[in-house]
Amino acid sequence: MNIPQHVAIILDGNRRWAKERGLPTLLGHKKGFEQARKITKYAAKIGIKYLSFFAFSTENWKRSKDEKLYLFKLYRLWAVKEFEELNKTGFRVIFSGDIDAFPDDLPIIFKKLIDKSKDNTGMVVNLCLNYGSKQEILRATKLALVDKLNPDDLSEEKFYSYFYTKDLPPVDLMIRSSGEQRISNFLLWQISYAELFFIKKRWPDFGQDDLDKIIEEFNNRERRIGK
User: Fold this and answer.
1) Among 192, 191, 186, 165, residue whose Cα is nearest residue 58
2) Per-residue pLDDT at 164
3) Distances (CA, A) of 36 to 30, 54, 95
């Protein structure tokens, strides 16, 4: 079976999962993060090389203070656990988005994680935090202008070198949970030729079997890429 090289996932449905069970919505985020860690390890096991998670968008700053503080706490716990397990997992961790905008010591923790894992040769985990694709493209444009590039020297490859994801290949497979059928400003450039899967399950209910089924369907699709 052909395993997609780069899989990107929009983690959607944590709050609705909790509400449907009469639980505090914040517990939905906790369950969602636990599930993301399980899927990360399983993805590496089956041979996926690059895994991108859309965890916090540039629009998510509009959420309540309590929810944001809880999410930041989860990010800190996740980063600490990943840091402790890097020697065992061999993952390389990168971030897409403006991580310096996060409060307290989060940017420092994230950068330590990047630095410690930079030479690892295992699966690359790309956590998209404070990320928006339109903002990424605008940022890349500004960086290209700062470099005063000759327009004749600006190719797709050169332009992509200004992206957060410059070291990652294009996305092969994009998954969004919870039934919503939209991209929500996520990796717009990178998913140009990706196969898109929208599933009804809330993210906390998404398991290994679901990923297996999607990859099986991925193999049944013919990717012409313009041919």
Assistant:
1) 186
2) 98
3) 10, 11, 15
- Here the tokens at position 14 are 């944590």
Catalytic residue among 2, 12, 119, 212: 12
User: What's the average model confidence in pLDDT over 121-131?
Assistant: 97
Specify burial of residue 51 (Cβ count, 10 A radius: 0-12, 13-18, 19+).
Answer: buried
**Predicted pLDDT at 226:** 65
pLDDT digits (tens, 9 = 90+) for 149-201: 888 889 999 999 999 999 999 999 999 999 999 999 999 999 999 999 999 99
The answer to whether residues 35 and 204 touch, using CB atoms and an 8 Å cutoff, is yes
Residue labelled with tokens 């990320």:
131
CA quadruple 168, 11, 43, 195: dihedral positive or negative?
negative
Task: Place 4 in a pLDDT band, splitting at 50, 70 and 90.
Answer: very high
Active site residue 60: yes
pLDDT in tens, 162-171: 999 999 999 9
Question: What are 123's two structure tokens?
Answer: 């699966």
Q: What are the structure tokens assigned to 30, written together?
A: 């906790």
Domains and CATH numbers, the chain: 6-216 (3.40.1180.10)
Give dist(CA 14, CA 18) in Å, integer.
Answer: 7
Catalytic residue among 2, 60, 130, 205: 60
